[in-house]
Inverse folding.
């Protein structure tokens, strides 16, 4: 079962991350914690990007920061090679739900990462009803 963990509350949205019940941290938080140890500068930029997302929304007009994943209702937040996949919660208008984070190694977002996000999104909605 999945739970929500609040990451940031801003003027426009509450940004949450998914976490498995019984686990200490969300998928996104675990990635960020590892990144903080490996690359503090990159970590700080990503945390700032999440805060801006909560204050101003996804900034879709700027593909360098966030973009829609074609053919889905998913989006990705971008900072360097790091991607965090997220979606708008259909049940709570002002909530953004982050599924997981990963390091992108190729030009295109890997299909398995999109599949993982879709599976988590589906599990999230199934547990909410």
């Amino acid at each position: 079962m999945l739970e929500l963990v609040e990451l940031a509350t801003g003027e426009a949205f509450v940004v949450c991350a998914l976490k498995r019940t019984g686990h200490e941290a969300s998928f996104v938080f675990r990635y960020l914690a590892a990144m903080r140890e490996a690359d503090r500068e990159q970590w700080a930029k990503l945390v700032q990007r999440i805060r801006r997302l909560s204050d101003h929304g996804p900034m879709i007009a700027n593909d360098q920061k966030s973009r829609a994943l074609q053919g889905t209702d998913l989006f990705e937040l971008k900072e360097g090679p790091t991607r965090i996949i997220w979606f708008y919660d259909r049940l709570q208008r002002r909530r953004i739900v982050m599924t997981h984070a990963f390091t992108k190694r190729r030009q295109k977002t890997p299909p398995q990462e999109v599949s993982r996000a879709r599976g988590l999104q589906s599990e999230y909605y199934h547990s909410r009803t």
